Amino acid sequence: MAPITGLAISLVLLVLQTATLRYIGLLWPVKVPIFEYPSEFHQNTVNGLIERINETRITEQLRHLAGAFPHREFNSDTGESFAVEIESLLRDTGVPVDIYHHGWRQPSLIAKIPGTQQSKVVVGCHLDSLNLVPFLSSPGVDDDLSGIVTLLEAIRILQQNPWEFRQSLEFHFYAAEEPGLRGSLDILANYSDIVAFLQQDMTGFSAGAPPHFGVVEDYASESLINYVKRLIETYCTIPYRSTRCGQICSDHSAALINGFPAVYVLESELAASNPYIHTERDTLEHIDVGHVAQHVRLVLAFAVETALMETVEARGEQSVRFRWTDIVILSATSDTLRFVMACIILSGAVANLVLVLRSGGHRNLFKLHEN
Ligand SMILES: [Zn+2]
């Protein structure tokens, strides 16, 4: 076969294979509905709940879980037994829990406080941990044991009251966030009716700057960004700073990819966040429990105020744009077989291109063009 024919065939195959990639549609913006979130708050109710936040209990929970589960990789024994432990702690609070099994060891968990309507308010965190250097331990105390205990403390307090929520409230503990949002993408692809999603991933480090929240403003719903800022001003005692991820940095992006309004609030702006994550030094000594308690305030406020919302009519749509690098990351991690095929075809195309250039075939092409 002439090199030029080989090149043409491999280019056609490359286009056909790329078109089958699961996340290729993200080349176009995702339409996410814009909801009107509450502007008047139930301050007596929420402040009554905030008074019950118990920092000693948060500290003990962190110590126990960090000591018993020094690493929690998504496809490991300890990753799986850690999910079983969190399920048991959730059931101790009296909240119903669904277990979601994936194609790896660690399941995801979904705790539910039902409302009178179908629509859902979701707060997320992730169960797995990661060390970027293989075979070294991955304690992941800030990333994301801190988010897990934030949700556990909020659920415990909410469960002490009989609620009549309108929106159903769900707390999602996702498996396999670290290898590319695999747990949340699995679950949220089959979801409907999420009207607000708040991610809590890294809530415990405050040494990088005077304590503040980081509100992620790229990869987020504008209406939710403004709403959580008002909640922070009303219910928390530290300020916020706007920050940017620059990529699909946590499970809120899986919500956006599936067309649900989402926002991510972490321990600080990215530049001041915990420098020890994804290493064996992401340990208890760097955690400020008072900072975790600020996040519990935010989660309680977000959960109660949003779940008490009367109507959830969309008043428009926002276009959320993803980068081509996001598509490469998502395809490599969550659509691996098709991605590997595309890479093989691409290398074939490059090899054919080299052959064409060496054989001078491109000059014939230019001559044809000139004639
Ligand atoms: Zn994380």
UniProtKB/TrEMBL annotation:
Keywords recorded for this protein, A-Z: Aminopeptidase, Hydrolase, Membrane, Metal-binding, Protease, Signal, Transmembrane, Transmembrane helix, Zinc
Annotated Peptidase M28 domain residues? 109-302
- The EC number(s) attached to this protein equal 3.4.-.-
Asked whether the keyword Protease is assigned, the reply is: yes
Q: Which cofactor does it need?
A: Zn(2+)
Example of a GO biological process term:
proteolysis
Keyword Membrane included in the entry's annotation? yes
**Entries under InterPro entries matching the protein:** M28_fam (IPR045175), Peptidase_M28 (IPR007484)
Q: Where are the transmembrane segments?
A: 339-357
In Gene Ontology terms, what is one molecular function of this protein? metalloexopeptidase activity
The organism sits in which domain of life?
Eukaryota
Please report which protein family the annotation says this sequence is part of: Belongs to the peptidase M28 family. M28E subfamily.
Q: What is this protein called?
A: Peptide hydrolase
Query: What's the source species for this entry?
Result: Ogataea parapolymorpha (strain ATCC 26012 / BCRC 20466 / JCM 22074 / NRRL Y-7560 / DL-1)
